[in-house]
Specification:
275 residues, mainly beta, 13-stranded antiparallel beta sheet, two-stranded antiparallel sheet, 43% strand, globular
Length: 275
């Protein structure tokens, strides 16, 4: 047996926790595809095990591309708070100095950029385009974690219909939506691993022309606690149209029952001046 596969197998058996990062053994056959209804249940089952607010801490690497096409890389510390379905705070700091802040709650979103000391804020029900210097949408970061339950038709007055496509290693759940002109377009994809325990490995957003807006890949899942949800330790998200990437290597997840929807972590900053 390949020494690397032997090491991965031994480690997985020894810990009982590590379920990502190692490729499946060559002789293990993938699960058979399941009907759509069951696939949606699988998609939501892990998210349903999450109780309260989650906090993730670790390191963040990435880059953004300026108007001149020059990539600017960064390496910072990251602290992320997440409360399903739409509450998020992702704070990126270098030596304690905030560089970028992404935030979202039920009603609004906000972004702070150290470069220019600028705030960008808005309301979810009044969609507007963020400027080019803000390539990352906070609402997309919520889904990039792959930990939100999927609700058919949620958040849109237009019909959203899922279909599925099966490949060698994945069962892809594809969400279609009628745009303003009545065209049926592909807007979002969840890729379920066909190997146990059937986790979300990829989340893709597309624009009205089918071009990828965000592509998030999830790896190195581990269980939060006995009987608790499986959470990714690595999230790599790309925004190819704007030339941005965020790679979050998570050292620790922790659950906080006391952090509710009205907690300070999810309050709209005063600098936003929203109603």
């Amino acid at each position: 047996m390949n020494p690397n596969r032997l090491a991965c197998s031994s480690m997985a058996v020894a810990t009982g926790l590590l379920v990502g990062g190692c490729p499946p053994p060559a002789r293990v056959a993938p699960f058979d595809p399941v009907p759509m209804r069951q696939a949606l249940y699988v998609l939501n089952e892990n998210a349903a095990a999450i109780r309260g607010t989650l906090r993730a801490t670790g390191s963040v690497d990435g880059f953004m591309t300026d108007d001149g096409g020059r990539k600017r890389g960064f390496h910072v510390d990251g602290v992320l708070f997440f409360l399903s379905p739409s509450f998020l705070r992702f704070d990126l700091k270098k030596f304690g100095d905030r560089q970028i802040l992404f935030g979202s709650n039920e009603d609004a979103y906000w972004v702070f950029m150290k470069d220019g000391e600028s705030w960008y804020c808005g309301e979810h029900d009044k969609p507007g385009r963020l400027p080019p210097e803000v390539p990352v949408k906070p609402a997309q970061l919520v889904d990039a974690l792959g930990l939100n339950p999927v609700q058919i038709g949620a958040g849109s007055q237009r019909l959203r219909s899922p279909i599925q496509r099966v490949t060698e290693f994945f069962q892809q759940i594809l969400f279609l939506e009628h745009d303003e002109r009545g065209r049926l377009v592909l807007v979002k994809e969840y890729w379920l691993d066909r190997y146990p325990p059937r986790l979300v490995r990829r989340v893709i957003f597309r624009d009205g022309d089918g071009v990828v807006e965000m592509d998030s890949r999830l790896d190195d899942y581990r269980r939060l606690e006995a009987g608790g949800p499986l959470l990714p330790r690595v999230m790599t998200a790309d925004w190819p149209q704007s030339g941005a990437q965020i790679r979050f290597r998570i050292d620790k997840w922790k659950r906080f029952e006391e952090i509710k929807r009205d907690a300070m972590q999810f309050k709209v900053p005063r600098a936003c001046d929203l109603p």
